[in-house]
Write a structure and sequence with these properties.
By secondary structure, the chain is an all-beta fold. It contains no helices and ten strands.
């Protein structure tokens, strides 16, 4: 499975299980992603994504999007799309 960098975690809201990710390229609902960091290492499918508190189907390069996550992430964790 090839992994392509898509962004980096800039904040994690543990009470909501939501990560803010600064996107380096487009990310869509349904994409399979991998979170990787010092103590982070898991895959998930993007099921919910928001920009400016509005649900979106795709995030664009340069946007800070909120993604519902299935595990704990930390600031600085890398996000990759799995193809």
């Amino acid at each position: 499975m090839a992994q392509k960098p898509v962004g980096e975690v800039t904040h994690y809201y543990s009470n909501l299980n939501v990560a803010t990710v600064k996107l380096a390229k487009e990310l869509k609902i349904g994409d399979k992603i991998h979170f990787e960091g010092h103590s982070t290492n898991f895959d998930q499918v993007v099921s919910e994504m928001q920009f400016d508190h509005e649900g979106i189907e795709a995030g664009k390069k340069g946007q800070d999007v909120g993604i519902k996550v299935t595990g704990k992430v930390r600031e600085g964790d890398k996000v990759h799309v799995i193809s």
